[in-house]
Write a structure and sequence with these properties.
This protein is an all-alpha fold. It has nine helices and no strands.
Length: 181
């Protein structure tokens, strides 16, 4: 039997995420404080800390869903509609994406994505990696983020289908080469 999540906790997390997103757009990540996010979400600082240890933890959770699609390219190299939809989502929300792909959040994003990718790499049967899976995962994550950053900026211009194909092919090539399948 699965236990349904507490509705209050779900509402609080949603409020914290909404506040985080709005404040990131308004003042950037570096200027954010736990107090500002808590105030905007209409909760106390202690409530923030009941859900997250740090602002980086809130950031990691906020990108978990979208980054799962990127990490899934390790297992499903085609990506399909989910990958196309993700790229379109990034383009539609490019203000937030540009803030998050810049400093100081880029290392946090790369680390979170690399962790998701690493989990999938370790599950690959009969693979003999050339280098540690954590390093492979980081290399894939950085490649994916660089391509997404270029896609969002439109410099150089890329067609949607080309960006999807490049993410898929690049991820697959690194997995095939570095895992020696």
């Amino acid at each position: 039997m699965t236990v349904a999540p507490d509705r209050r906790q779900t509402r609080t997390r949603a409020a914290l995420h909404a506040a985080f997103r709005a404040l990131v757009l308004g003042q950037g990540y570096e200027a954010l404080t736990v107090g500002a996010v808590a105030d905007r979400a209409n909760v106390g600082r202690s409530t923030f800390y009941e859900h997250y240890r740090t602002m980086d933890d809130l950031l990691r959770e906020s990108i978990q869903g979208p980054f799962t699609t990127l990490a899934d390219l390790v297992d499903h190299p085609q990506g399909g509609d989910a990958l196309r939809d993700l790229l379109l989502h990034f383009r539609e929300n490019q203000q937030v994406a540009r803030v998050l792909l810049g400093w100081p959040t880029r290392p946090v994003l790369a680390s979170a994505l690399a962790q998701l990718i690493g989990d999938r790499l370790r599950a690959v049967p009969l693979a003999t990696p050339l280098i540690p899976p954590e390093v492979i995962a980081r290399q894939i994550a950085e490649m994916q983020l660089a391509l997404i950053e270029a896609w969002i900026a439109g410099r150089p211009a890329m067609q949607e289908a080309a960006a999807v194909a490049a993410l898929s092919a690049g991820t697959n090539a690194l997995v095939q080469t570095l895992l020696k399948r």
